[in-house]
C-alpha cells in the first residue's frame, strides 16, 4: 500500500486497539487508563511500522529518540495517543492517533484517527472545504494549556474561544467545518502537530507558526510549541492579530 493508505491503516488499527483497551479496563483511574492506552498504542503502532516500513526512521512521543532519524530521508512522526488525559475520561471523544511521514524536508503523508468518533482523516482524501458557518468564528485552544492571550485574540477577531483536548480532534473540527481555527502556543512537540498539519495541508487549509513561518520537522529538539491551523480566508486576520498583541509562546 502507498504511504497515504498505510498512514490511514496504521492510525485506524491503533484506534481500534485503543477502543478495546478503554472497554476492557473499567474502574481504573484516568491516569492508569491513560498509561495503559499510551503503552498499547505504542506497541501496536511500532510493530506496524516495523512490518510495513522497516527501512524508515521513527520519532514517537512514547519511545526513546533515535538520533539516526536526523540523517534519514524518511521519518514517521507519530503520537500513538494524542489526548491521553481525555482518553482516560470516558466517554470523552477528543483524543486521537497521529501518524505522519516526513520526507525530504516536508510532510508527505499522514492520518488522524478519532476512534471514539469512528472517524479517520488522511492525506489520501481531498474533499472540498466545508462552507463557512454563520455567526462568530469558533477558535479552538488547548483544554489544559490555553494560550494566555486567547481571550484577547478572540476579542480582536470577534471569535468564541472553545477549549478542547487533542490537537488531532481540534484540527478535525476545523477541517470538517465545526470550527474556524485552531491555535496553540506552548507545550507542544513535533508529534503533536505533524499528522494534523499534513492532513490540513493536503486539504488546502492554512498551517503555520504564529509568526507566519512554516512548520518544519525532524529537528534535534522536537519542541514545536506554537501553530495555527485554519481556513485560508482567516489566516491573514489571525496572524495580524497575533502580531498586534505580541503573543508569547510559554
Automatic annotation (TrEMBL):
<dbReference type="InterPro" id="IPR050725">
    <property type="entry name" value="CysQ/Inositol_MonoPase"/>
</dbReference>
<dbReference type="GO" id="GO:0008441">
    <property type="term" value="F:3'(2'),5'-bisphosphate nucleotidase activity"/>
</dbReference>
<feature type="binding site">
    <location>
        <position position="81"/>
    </location>
    <ligand>
        <name>Mg(2+)</name>
    </ligand>
</feature>
<protein>
    <submittedName>
        <fullName>3'(2'),5'-bisphosphate nucleotidase CysQ</fullName>
    </submittedName>
</protein>
<dbReference type="Pfam" id="PF00459">
    <property type="entry name" value="Inositol_P"/>
</dbReference>
<feature type="binding site">
    <location>
        <position position="61"/>
    </location>
    <ligand>
        <name>Mg(2+)</name>
    </ligand>
</feature>
<feature type="binding site">
    <location>
        <position position="82"/>
    </location>
    <ligand>
        <name>Mg(2+)</name>
    </ligand>
</feature>
<dbReference type="GO" id="GO:0000103">
    <property type="term" value="P:sulfate assimilation"/>
</dbReference>
<dbReference type="GO" id="GO:0046872">
    <property type="term" value="F:metal ion binding"/>
</dbReference>
<keyword id="KW-0479">Metal-binding</keyword>
<dbReference type="InterPro" id="IPR000760">
    <property type="entry name" value="Inositol_monophosphatase-like"/>
</dbReference>
<keyword id="KW-0460">Magnesium</keyword>
<feature type="binding site">
    <location>
        <position position="79"/>
    </location>
    <ligand>
        <name>Mg(2+)</name>
    </ligand>
</feature>
<dbReference type="GO" id="GO:0050427">
    <property type="term" value="P:3'-phosphoadenosine 5'-phosphosulfate metabolic process"/>
</dbReference>
<feature type="binding site">
    <location>
        <position position="192"/>
    </location>
    <ligand>
        <name>Mg(2+)</name>
    </ligand>
</feature>
